[in-house]
Design a protein that fits this description.
The chain has 2 domains: 62-126, Ubiquitin-like (UB roll) (Roll), CATH 3.10.20.310; 129-266, 3-Layer(aba) Sandwich (Rossmann fold). It is an alpha/beta fold. Helix content is 41%, strand content 26%. The protein is built from 8 helices and 12 strands. A hairpin with a 7-residue loop joins strand 11 and strand 12. It has a 6-stranded mixed β-sheet.
Length: 268
C-alpha cells in the first residue's frame, strides 16, 4: 500500500506544528504556569490594598489650606474635620466639601484634594460682599450680602467700601404693592444686580443703594450726590451713560440714568 505523498506529509506537518509563536505560547500556558500567574496577581492585589489601606505610608498626616481672606486657616481646618491618621484613599472629599459649606457660609466654593503621599489640601474661595444690610435686631450689626444675593455673614463693623442697602419698599402704598408682588428677596437681588453693574469709580463712591420699588432704585454717593438708576435692567448701558454724564457734568449733584438713552443731570 502506497504511503502519503510529499504534499500530504507537508500539509499534516503544517497542521501539527502551527505558527511558531502560537506553539510557544501554548507551551507557556501550561496549568502550572497559569496557577503561578494567578497567585502573582492575587499577591499584587493584596499588596496594593494593604499599601493603600493598611500600611502607615499613605495616611493623612497634614491638612493645608489656601485662598482664605477673612476666615483663618485654623477655622477652615476645624470645620473640615479631616480624619487625620486615616488612609488617604478612604477620605471622602465630597463629604468634607459639604461640611465646610454648611459650617462656614462665608465659603462660596471649596475643592478638597488629596496630596500624595500623606496630605489633604483645602482650596477655598470666600464670598465677597457687594452690599451690607444693617441688622437693628442684633445690636447694630451688619449682614453681608454677596453677588448672588446670599446673606452669608453677620459682622460687627461694616466692611470698608461696601455700600449699605436701604430697603424702603414698605413705606408707601405704591412701594408696598411692589414689595407684595416681588417679595423682599427679589428686591434685594435687584439691588445686588445694580451694585454689580456700577462702574468701578462709582462703586467706590457709593455709600447707599436705596430700593423704593422694583423700578425705583437709587444710589447715594459721597459728596452728597444722588443717582436715579431705575430698575436693574440695562445695567451696562446705564453704567456707560453714568460715566459719560459724570464726566460731562462734574459739578452736578443729581444724575438720572433710569432711561439710559435720555439721561439727565442737575444741581451744582
Amino acid at each position: 500500500m502506497a504511503g502519503p505523498t510529499t504534499a500530504e506529509r507537508g500539509e499534516r506537518q503544517h497542521l501539527d506544528s502551527g505558527p511558531p509563536r502560537l506553539t510557544r505560547f501554548k507551551r507557556l500556558l501550561s496549568p502550572r504556569t497559569l496557577i503561578i500567574l494567578l497567585v502573582c496577581v492575587v499577591l499584587l492585589g493584596a499588596t496594593g490594598a494593604w499599601v493603600l489601606y493598611g500600611s502607615q505610608w499613605l495616611r493623612v498626616e497634614r491638612v493645608s489650606t489656601s485662598g482664605t481672606r477673612v476666615l483663618t486657616d485654623e477655622q477652615v481646618r476645624e470645620a473640615a474635620d479631616v480624619p487625620v491618621g486615616a488612609p488617604l484613599i478612604s477620605v471622602d472629599t465630597d463629604v468634607i466639601e459639604a461640611r465646610l459649606r454648611q459650617k462656614l457660609p462665608r465659603i462660596d466654593s471649596v475643592d478638597v484634594v488629596r496630596s500624595w503621599p500623606d496630605g489633604i489640601g483645602l482650596k477655598v474661595i470666600e464670598r465677597t460682599p457687594v452690599l451690607i444690610v444693617e441688622n437693628s435686631g442684633k445690636g447694630g450689626k451688619y449682614v453681608e450680602v454677596d453677588a448672588k444675593g446670599v446673606r452669608f455673614a453677620t459682622v460687627s463693623r461694616a466692611p470698608k467700601g461696601v455700600p449699605a442697602l436701604n430697603l424702603t419698599a414698605a413705606q408707601s402704598s405704591s412701594s408696598s404693592a411692589s414689595l407684595r408682588r416681588f417679595g423682599t428677596g427679589r428686591l434685594v437681588r435687584e439691588a445686588v444686580s445694580v451694585a454689580g453693574s456700577l462702574p468701578a469709580a462709582v462703586a467706590r463712591r457709593t455709600q447707599v443703594v436705596k430700593v423704593r420699588s422694583y423700578d425705583s432704585i437709587s444710589l447715594e454717593l459721597s459728596g452728597n450726590r444722588t443717582v436715579a438708576w431705575g430698575s436693574s435692567e440695562k445695567g451696562r448701558a446705564k453704567a456707560r451713560t453714568l460715566t459719560a454724564l459724570m464726566k460731562a457734568s462734574p459739578e452736578a449733584r443729581y444724575f438720572d440714568v433710569s432711561v439710559p438713552t435720555a439721561p439727565a443731570s442737575s444741581g451744582s
